[in-house]
Amino acid sequence: MTDLTPPAPRGENDFMPKLLTVLREGYGLAALRADAMAGLTVAIVALPLSMAIAIASGLGPERGLFTTILGGFLISALGGSRYQIGGPAGAFIVGVSACVAEIGVQGLMVATLISGVLLIAAGALRLGHYVRFLPYPVTIGFSAGIAVIIFVSQIKEVLGLSPQAEPASVLPKLMALWQAREGFSPEALGVSLITIALLQGIKRLRPHWPNLLLVTCGMTFAVWGLGLPVHLVGDRFGALPHFLPAPQMPDLSAGSLWAALPFALQFTLLGAITGLLSAQVADGISGNRHRPSIELFAEGTANIAVSFFGGVYATGAVARTVTNHAAGSRGPISGMLHALFVLGFLAVLAPLIAFVPMAVFAGILCVVAWNMAARAQFVMLLRASRSDGLILLTTFGLVVFRDLTEGIVMGFALAGLVFLHRMSKAVALETDIGDDPDRVVVHLSGPWFFGAAAQTGALLEQLAEHPRHFVLDMKDLDYLDSSGARALELLARRVTRKGGRMVLSGVKPAQRIVLEQAGLTPQAVDFIPDLATLDRV
């Protein structure tokens, strides 16, 4: 079997952190100043965003900060991307909130720990190289689906509702919110809408300003000054700690591990996809090349650490990674400093965070959902082809109404079927009967695998009905699998029963091994180097 894993570039170790590469290149005071400014910029963005993601996941805001501090530091220090910023990501809101609702916060820590171990194993096996095979319609479908779920999850805070119970599924959630409509708060809606408008307006008019921090602070002071009756962070979560908590070992009993395993598998799949796609985005804007194996190792190590300190889930975050590069980062040290800056903010600003309105965080997450929706790409794929549209809508629908992992797996499986169907039509058959009626030469080109064999097998059988010599010219055959070889072996038997002989011309050495394993030995068929030697048969 051909190894599809691309080799690492010459002189590059796939398991060497980018931090060591940057230090070996030479790192001076000017680079440190640039990284300090970039780290501060990203920390200002990460502070409100990480708290908002934690709250949307059904956890206290401090857990998002713990994730940013620990996960952000370790992913930058150990990772394989020069500009990657780690921390809580919006893509995990759905899975984390479902995990907390089903097995509790301690169960989440166990799932995060298991996922960290699995990510380290995936890095050791170099599985990160295969993320690039994830079909684009699947990526856009699950991103758009997550965006819808995030938006629906924030309706409660946007409208100031207090439903008796809030189911995890989208449709039951909407029904529960409708039943609680009498608790609608115009003040909460106004705060959310103004937050959204200010975030978008500042981003458009002053793109270099820290709109998240400015709007969070401004709206908090406005609500306090006007005395608006809206829910605050402190009303729901109490006072925030000033520092990281003491580490605590997750419950590793058999029952706890078994209950957490399905969520751990989901986190691992999504973490690998999200983190490596973020690293690819960083490559695209910087011209660098990330190292996926050590990147998965770093993400796994970060999540093991997060599980001991009660964080959310750490992965690469696209928006913060792009901000890091745009702010002038020189390498991973900016990501490490961003984590330390957030730690400083926690120590100093913890008492003030309790006064932030919940509606402000809801507005922030509505903007996150809008940015995740990939609207232009969604419409483009719908127009591109029926098959891409089918894959997109299948993934999107399953993510929104069923399950995130199910959506990704089914979307990938459907994309695989579409690919096999297209490839089965890529095999070319060219028949040459010539002057000898007892001889038919068929030129094969393209991939000959189980799909192509099923597509063209009947035609070959018709051609093999009468000739004494049935010749297959395989010099232009790109690929042959065991199913394709088995189909040819059955065809050779048919030719033999009719009193003829199959001749295989121009067979590549690797393909001949596959053929002989399927029973096409020199006793069953004739092998010739090329058609020029056909008359010797």
Topology:
Blueprint: H1 18-25, H2 29-56, H3 61-78, E1 86-87, H4 93-124, H5 136-153, H6 155-159, H7 170-179, H8 186-205, H9 211-226, H10 233-237, H11 254-286, H12 292-309, E2 315-316, H13 318-326, H14 333-353, H15 358-372, H16 375-384, H17 386-401, H18 404-424, E3 428-432, E4 439-448, H19 450-463, E5 469-480, H20 482-497, E6 501-505, H21 509-517, E7 526-528
Parallel strand pairs: 4-5, 5-6, 6-7
Antiparallel strand pairs: 1-2, 3-4
Helix pairs in contact: 2-3, 2-9, 2-13, 2-14, 2-15, 3-12, 3-14, 4-11, 4-12, 5-15, 5-16, 5-17, 5-18, 8-9, 8-15, 11-12, 11-13, 16-17, 17-18, 18-19, 19-20
Describe what you observe in this structure.
This protein is of the alpha/beta class. The chain has two domains: 341 residues, no CATH class; 109 residues, 2-Layer Sandwich (Transcription Regulator spoIIAA), CATH 3.30.750. It contains 21 helices and seven strands. The strands form two sheets. Strands 3-4-5-6-7 form a five-stranded mixed β-sheet, with helices on one face. Helix 21 links the parallel strand 6 and strand 7. Helix 2 runs antiparallel to helix 3, helix 5 packs across helix 16 and helix 17 runs antiparallel to helix 18. The longest helix has 33 residues. It is elongated and about 100 Å long. Pfam families: STAS (PF01740), Sulfate_transp (PF00916). InterPro entries: SLC26A/SulP_dom, SLC26A/SulP_fam, STAS_dom, STAS_dom_sf. One of its GO terms (cellular component) is membrane. This is STAS domain-containing protein. It is a multi-pass membrane protein.
